[in-house]
User: What shape does this take?
Amino acid sequence: MIRTILVQTKRELGAILFSPIAYVLLTCFALLHGFSFTLCVEAMQQGVKNVTIMFIFFNWFFFWFALILFVPILTMRLFSEEFKSGTVEPLLTAPVSEWDVVIAKFTAAFLFYVLLWVPSALFYTIYQFLTGHVTPVQWGPLFLGYAMVLLIGAFYISIGLFASSLTRNQVVAAVLAFAGIALLFFCSFLGFFTVNPQLEELVNYISSLNHMRLFANGTFDSRPVILYLSGAVLFLFLTERALAGRRLKN
Amino acid sequence: MAQKNTRARWRTNHWISIGLVLVIFAAAQFLNYKYFKRTNLSPIDYVKLSELSINVVRDLPGPVTLTAFIAPQGDPLAPLVQSDLLDLLDQYRYNSNGRIEVRRIDPFINFDDARGIVETFKLATNENVVIVEYAERSKVLRLADLAEVDASGEMFGSPPRLVAFKGEREITSAIQQLVRGETKKIYFTSGHGEFNPLAPDNERMSYSLIGSYLRRQNADLFRINLAEQGGVPPDADLVVVAGPRSRFTQGEIDLLRAYFLGEKPGKLLIMLDPETSSGLEDFFAPYGLTFANDLALTRVSMLGQTRILADAIGTTFAAHPAIDWARNLGANLVLGACRSLVLGPPAEGEAAKGTALVRTPESYWGETEKDKEGVQFDEGKDTRGPLTLAAAIEVGAVEGLDVDLAVPKAVAVGGAAFLINENLGTMQVDFAVNVVNWLVGQEDALGIAPKEPTEFKTSLLPEQQEKIALLVLVVVPGLIAIIGVAVWWRRRV
Assistant: This one.
């Protein structure tokens, strides 16, 4: 099974990396984060701050904008394209299970997602190399910040994958994924307006903004880790069920 | 038919499995919410709760509620500390084994809850506070007491800066006091026309409002007639003499002194209005402090006319725990009609540390002949400014040593009417509450030092900034784009 998944993952990753959209995404992502990093440096130049450069980076508008917008674009074609081109039929009739296919596609998308973040991690080295200054970061919070980026990414990618498994139209898949991710993300703001303590607790529990602020501050909390991992597993399961349902229909 | 049945069974199983997984997911989230682990990997102890606080909240005998009543829109201090404060409250909750409940109330959003809190705790409409509640007891901590802010850069356009965060020290101390059931007992002297904190709100010259502010600090207020009761009760944490109009007898002065220098070190707050004689003017003379028999005056120019102003305004504040808040705030403190205080060395054989807490600008002088026509500063007769309006005395303390020793402590103020309901403003309340807090002490949590935020700043040359921008905005994205074009070209051919 693992061998099958590895072969499938390689195939999926190859498909992503050989498509022009991958490089458009990578370039835009690097450009957006480059712009964000420049602004962070500018902000730190303005005066004394009580937060690190990476705390600003991880909590800035551009960070969330990129995350919410790019994940649906990354995942929209994963199943929809296969449905549209008809390549899903041979895939599902081959001696591989739905789970193999789902996990392979998810892993490939996730690896590409990791690749998207590599330039941003390079920025700190560039800063240090050019200025000779130790970058105003702290390694514990930096590590936790990137760990949260990966956890949120895994969860959002699984949502995108599920959306893609529901339709043969890539645009519809992207819109569905965007709606789901945006809905979850904007729930974070409900905490500012609710007067109900229970609802506030719930919102705090699922608020990605809160989680990122906490982790980028250097505080590890097991709750978001379990939430995002179990959420990713749930949506992968739903994706598998969607594929199985499609097979049943046929 | 058989195939149809199989398909139907499969469909049922399909939906049951989805339902089951959703239920398992919900149950897992419930358990995840209830049982979790949290740890701090930041090298800065600024965001960590100290062991002392953890020990206090781990074994609480009953539920404690911490309510953050904060409207960031109305207070420049709130945006600076709100995030740290909420993180801190969250840590209290996490370490309390479910004994601490944290509530966050924004009065601009939670109208009903906010109204209830304002009425219960008699808050001003624009006050940002943290309320600590345990059983029937409560303590209100003002945001200004939880943080030290440097506003000195404001005149150059720099925003105020957080210098130290005292939230943990104050909140842990409040929890300790409430759990132990300790209330500070403050006795106000009576029998000489003093201002009365137990008088009704609508009574003229009442001290009822400042009384309610002191009660919010978990203090019980009493009145005491020294002549009738023959001494200060042994449970007194502080005795306040607030603006007596007639003289204390020598016997009463001796009783006060016996309390002050007693086995349990006494704490005194003596506020004497100008143009009154109470017999207490030289009470602190052995320690180098006396009340002058004058009135603080200054000349002000308004609309081309020069007038004499008898409202004493403090503009210079000492580096002292009782008045640090005002120094950090950089605002003026209006104390109304005041006499000046004279600070000098203690008498021979006495050890005492005196600090001029509040001083006027140099333009003030202490007028000794208030009733004569055309008052002006008379060299040799009047006291030259800047005048000392309030001073602290620590008997037995050593000059230059900033250790909070258990010694007799006192604060003398050259006026008392600034605290009556009609004159009371935010600055006056802050002054009184901070002075009382310093006098009665916060010994419990003194082991928790105020936390200084780590400050980050970059100082790059413009060329360095340009290079960074060039690399991260052009070179890195450009390289990726080139790789993309190369891949596309190779696939094409």
The mean pLDDT of chain B is 86. Chain B touches chain A through 62 residues (CB under 8 Å). The first strand of chain B starts at residue 38 and ends at 40.
